[in-house]
Specification:
- Helix 2 runs parallel beside helix 6 and helix 5 runs antiparallel to helix 6.
- The longest helix has 29 residues.
- About 3% of the residues have low confidence.
- The chain has one domain: Four Helix Bundle (Hemerythrin (Met), subunit A) (Up-down Bundle).
- By secondary structure, it is mainly α.
- The chain is elongated and about 60 Å long.
- It contains eight helices and no strands.
- Helix content is 67%, strand content 0%.
């Protein structure tokens, strides 16, 4: 049967995916906007998945069609890709979560846990492959949610979220050039921003 009106699941989902925000520093003002949009994305998805499927009702009213079969217990793309949408979505969620945790471990160990000005440029671990693994992780988690449960608000919010993380990454890179100079520029020339290939 349908999973709507299950407010405890909605809260649990939002809290579970919101916990990943503890893996980024909030002492910087620049982190707050992308984190807020990420949290709004998670809350919007949880509301539509477990609370009230407003987007689906609006779309069916506007298009004059009924809800596709299975949409109330599967995922919104089920009629097009079957259950692969759920598997792909959960796979992206998992990979994103791993990137966030691995990135946090390296950056905390070598930079955030040090006194100001005493941290090292982090180029090992996951940072040997991509310069912003945590932001890539947030992008993948939300992409997985979008694949799993594509709704009108999420389709508008996801590109905004990606743009904000891109903008944040560029700002941080300017700060890192000021702090580490040539060492960071050399690292940057050898390592991709978000994707390892």
């Amino acid at each position: 049967m349908a999973a709507y009106g299950q407010w405890s699941f909605m809260v649990a989902w939002a809290v579970l995916f919101g916990l990943f925000l503890f893996f980024i520093p909030f002492n910087r003002k620049s982190q707050k906007r992308p984190a807020s949009v990420y949290l709004a994305f998670v809350a919007a998805l949880a509301f539509e998945m477990f609370g009230v499927p407003l987007s689906l009702y609006i779309a069916t009213w506007a298009l004059g069609t009924s809800l596709p079969e299975g949409i109330l217990w599967g995922h919104t793309l089920q009629q097009y890709v079957g259950y692969w949408g759920m598997y792909i979505g959960f796979g992206l969620n998992f990979v994103g979560a791993i990137l966030i945790v691995l990135g946090w471990r390296e950056i905390h160990k070598h930079y955030w846990s040090k006194d100001e000005g005493k941290g090292n440029l982090v180029t090992g671990g996951i940072y040997a492959y991509i310069r912003h693994p945590q932001y890539t992780g947030f992008i993948l988690i939300t992409l997985g949610m979008l694949v799993h449960w594509a709704t009108i608000p999420l389709l508008f919010m996801w590109p905004i979220l990606v743009f904000l993380y891109y903008k944040l990454a560029k700002r941080e890179e300017r700060e890192l050039v000021k702090e580490f100079g040539k060492e960071y520029l050399e690292y940057k020339s050898k390592t991709r921003m978000f994707m390892p290939l």
